[in-house]
Every structure is written in structure tokens, then in C-alpha cells.
Specification:
single chain; alpha/beta; Aspartate Aminotransferase, domain 1; Aspartate Aminotransferase, domain 2; 2 domains; seven-stranded mixed sheet; four-stranded mixed sheet; 15% strand; Asp_trans; transmembrane helix; aminotransferase; pyridoxal phosphate binding
Length: 496
Amino acid sequence: MASSVFSLASATPSASLSSHDIEKVFLIPFFKIWSFFSVFILLTVWLLRNGKISSQGKLNLRNTSLCFKKEKNNPFMKTKSFGRISMVVASNVSRFEGITMAPSDPILGVSEAFKADNHELKLNLGVGAYRTEELQPYVLDVVKKADKLLLEKGENREYLPIEGLAAFNKVTADLLFGADNPVIKQQRVATVQGLSGTGSLRLAAALIERYFPRGEVLISSPTWGNHKNIFNDAKVPWSEYRYYDPKTVGLDFEGMIADIKAAPEGSFILLHGCAHNPTGIDPTPEQWEIIADVIQEKNHIPFFDIAYQGFASGSLDADAASVRMFVARGMEVIAAQSYSKNLGLYAERIGAINVVCSSPDAAARVKSQLKRIARPMYSNPPVHGARIVANIVGDAALFKEWNAEMEMMAGRIKNVRHKLFDSLSSKDKSGKDWSFVLKQIGMFSFTGLNKAQCDNMTNKWHVYMTKDGRISLAGLSLAKCEYLADAIIDSYHNGS
């Protein structure tokens, strides 16, 4: 906002004139008038440059005020004098002037660019969201049934407790650790409903910042794009351990083990429980055992991010095996969960943070502090999605139906993965080995393409993806596999 204030001093000529008064009577008023018009021209230029006059010559006074007086003691006013005529320009500087424009989110920004593209063959393989063979969003049938049952029950919309829906917290811990797990029976798990995986991770990060002031988190390189944001925002220091080997497009297991060994004792090691994002590369069961050995030897704390339980392999138990193995060793474990993918509850923001402790008393104290952190952050979590999860997992018939649908979704992604591999292998005559596509698991494939090659994918082929080379196979159909293979082959060989 800006305003301009004029102060004009005028003079009245005497009634009678003499020869020596001509200068006084005519010349001085002339220069005064000329000064006035000069100020008028300067003001007009200023108004034009600051958008106060439109191209049609209309004056916009909404953010401009004109008055014929001089404001005093205004720190935002600047005075320019022209003889006895002064122009005062006042600018109300925003208190938020120092805030810079934030960069667009590297994942969500992909969808925005995709929507702006009108090409008929365009593909959005950036965001990890499941699509049907027709590339349409999918709402699980079991979710529709649970929704209908909730509507028929006429549940109220009262606030939940800070820790969330009790029925949800019970079934989610049972689902991850196993209902018969001793840590469940001994009440050694502190479970708090969080705002999906992101919010649950953020609660854990705040707990680390508050009670482990010298704690450091080790994150895989590469990792999900939001992990670093979460720990940065919570002011928790982090570093990376080697994970991806670009030479083999596989796991750098030796580098991973060496970096975990070298980390300061008592560090938090962030692990992807299954279907590593973005690479889709998971350790083998034997490698998981070695990882657990090293973490236990170094007195580290394993910190699992579980975003795809049941969605990666189609089996809830198989996808939770890594977490359960660490717990079975008697280790204290942190585990964040999300139901965005396996139940398609993306917008419901349903997840949980679980802390497995060595005693029930420690678990109670941890839970109390998680609640204390959540209270000023968001007060209490949403209820609708939590009721859906509790009802599906708690009902034998609905639970069976959910398992069947998860197998169907996981199966479709596996079929797309195989079709893409077949298309790449048959079309590329260079002899390149594309078998890494089959070795990866889950909804993502890490193509190994660099930024320039990814730019070629988008600019030439209208395939939208993150610049690290990750593509979401959940957003791909069998019918589009050959087109995608052409794009990848061209970009790999010609896009650098």
C-alpha cells in the first residue's frame, strides 16, 4: 500500500503593478505553476509505475489516498521538495516483507504440472496413489461398506481423546506387531493415533528433540522426500547412510552396514519396513538379521516407517516381518504407520506412532509425553477414518474382504511391473539389463534416470515423475507400459 500527500504554498499577486514588479507578478507565479505541473507529472509517473492508473487511464484509489496536507512524524513518509512545493510519498511496508517465496513441493508439484498439460498420452507417475487399470482413483469396496455401516449407526462427531480412538489404537498395534505378541500382552507399546504417516513421524521427531538432545537420526540415501523436512522442522540433526548402489541399481548393503556401525552410539536408525521409497529395494531376510545385529551392538534405536503394510506383497504379516523380528530380539523400537495406501484413505490422514518400551511403566510415560506434544500441535486427531480402520480390522468378514482387495491391488502393480520389464527388454536392443525392475517391490520403481533424462521424459514424452528417477507403478496401466518403455529407453540413451 502506498499513499501520496501534497503540500502546495500559493501566493496572491498585488493589485497594482510597476515595471520592477513584473518579475514578481508574472515570472514567480509562472515558475510556481510550472513547479506544480512538474509535481503533477512526477505523481502521474509514480502512479503509473505502481499500478495506480490502469492502461485505460482509470485511477485506482483503493490503495492510494490524496490529500492536501503534510503528515508529520510518519516514519514511512519520504518528502521531496521542489522550491516551496513539497511532495510527500508514504509507503506502508509489509511486516512480512522479509518472507521469501517457498519452492514448490517436489512431489506434489509434479501433479500441478501434469494437470496443466493437455497432451493425450500424458502420464502422472509422480504421486504414490493407487489407480485402476483405467488410471482412475480407487475407493476400496470394503471401505464403502464400512462407510455405510458408520452412517447407519449414526455415530456422533464428538472430539476424540488426545491419543485418538481407543479401538483404532488397539487394532493398529495388533496389526503391526501381531495380536499375540508379548509386547502387546505386557502393555509395553505406547500407541498414539497420528495424522497419517507424516504426522506420526513428526510426533516421534518432537519426542526425540525433547528427550534425546544429543540424538541423531540416520536416514537412507535416498529416502522419501519428506523425511528430511520432518526432522529439519523438528530441529533434529540427521545424516545419511548409504543404501542405493547406482552401478547395480540395487542395495549397497556393505555401505549401509559400514555407515550404521560408524554412527554415534545410541543413534536412531530410520528404516523402511517394506517397499523402500523411492527405490523399491528391500534387504533380504538374511540381511535384515545382520542389520539388527549391528543396531543392537551399537545400542542404536531402530525407527521404522511403515507406509505399505499389506500393500507391498499383498500379505500383512509378510510386510511386517522386519519390525516383528527386531521386537522379538527384545529391542526398543519406534514405528510409524499409515493407512493411506493399504486402505486408500489418503485424505482421511489416518496413521499411528508406536513406541515399544522395555516396561509397561516406560510405555505409559512415553504415551503421556506423546499426548503432551500432540495437544498444542493439533489437539486431537480425526475420527472418521479411524472408525473405518477399527471396524474393518475388528470385523472378521470385512477383514477378509480387505485382505482380498489388498492382494488384488498388489497383484495389479506386480503385473504392471512385469509388463514394463518385458516391454523394456524387447524394445531396447542395446543389451542393457533391465532386470532390476523385477527385483524391486511395491508401488515404486527406481529407474536410475538422472535429472536430465527425467526432464526428457517430461518435456518430450509428457511423463511426469520426480527428478530422482522414481516412477509410481500404481499410476501406470498395462496399456501404457509400451509407451512408457519407449520413453525410458529414449531418455536413457538420448536424454543425458
